[in-house]
Amino acid sequence: MKSSVVIKSNKSGMTVILAPEVPFEELLGDIARKFEESAKFWGSVQMTLTLAGRPLAPEQEFQIANVIMDHSQIEIVCLVDLDSNRIRRCEKALNEKLMELSACTGQFYRGHLHRGESLESEASIVVIGDVEQGARITAKGNVIVLGELKGTVVAGASGNEEAVIVALTMAPYQLRIGEFETEVNEKGRRLGRGPVTAFVEGQAISLTQIKKSFFDVLKSV
């Protein structure tokens, strides 16, 4: 029987080739079984993902990525797009969205924050880049890190317990929202797989994994 899902690996990730004639819902089940069967082979690893073999809508791509992560220990850090026209359209849409966020939140930062560096905002702040251990962000509103968070973040610095902290990779040294803070994470272990939101629940900071598209994450600001 011909397989509807074929996996090819490369140095930075994997390509999953999908049969064009199989109904999408059936294909999701085939993907789940394929990655459950090969979970031990892949182990716990971060990879890029390229999807080939059939045209897919963006929401279908994210569904496939989530099925793979749910049925294996693979963390997909990036979906590689082979459509150059769509890449240009997405880049244009991203830039427009970032300009909108900058106007609405009052601050938008592009670049990495290194050890010893700090960033402060009177409102919410979006950081496109990594926050290294030893770096610090303080904001009166929300903090969204579109990269790896390993430093210290204070959100809701004016006492706003409704603020949230979002990171594509959450491995902070410490988080604080309003008057509540997490324990120090000296080893820098990741708190969850993929994008994670930190928020105040009860009398403590809770964490939840995000299974949404990139632009849904941005709407959290």
Report on the structure:
- There is one protein chain.
- It is built from 5 helices and 15 strands.
- The protein has 221 residues and is an alpha/beta fold.
- Strands 5-7-9-11-14-15 form a 6-stranded mixed sheet.
- Helix 1 packs parallel to helix 3.
- The C terminus is likely disordered.
- Helical content, roughly? 25-40%
Distance between the termini: 48 Å
N-to-C SSE string, H for helix and E for strand: EEHHEHEHEEEEEEEEEEEH
Mean pLDDT: 83
Overall 3D form:
elongated
The helix tally amounts to 5
Strand neighbour order, sheet with most strands: 5-7-9-11-14-15
Structure keywords:
5 helices; single chain; disordered C terminus; alpha/beta; 221 residues; 34% strand
List the helices and strands and how they pair.
Blueprint: E1 5-9, E2 13-18, H1 24-37, H2 39-42, E3 45-52, H3 58-70, E4 74-80, H4 84-105, E5 108-110, E6 118-121, E7 125-128, E8 136-139, E9 143-149, E10 152-155, E11 165-170, E12 174-177, E13 180-181, E14 196-201, E15 204-209, H5 214-218
Parallel strand pairs: 2-3, 3-4, 5-7, 6-8, 7-9, 8-10, 9-11, 10-12
Antiparallel strand pairs: 1-2, 11-14, 12-13, 14-15
Care to give the gist of this entry?
By secondary structure, the chain is α/β, with parallel strands linked by helices. The chain has helices spanning 24-37, 39-42, 58-70, 84-105, 214-218; strands at residues 5-9, 13-18, 45-52, 74-80, 108-110, 118-121, 125-128, 136-139, 143-149, 152-155, 165-170, 174-177, 180-181, 196-201, 204-209.
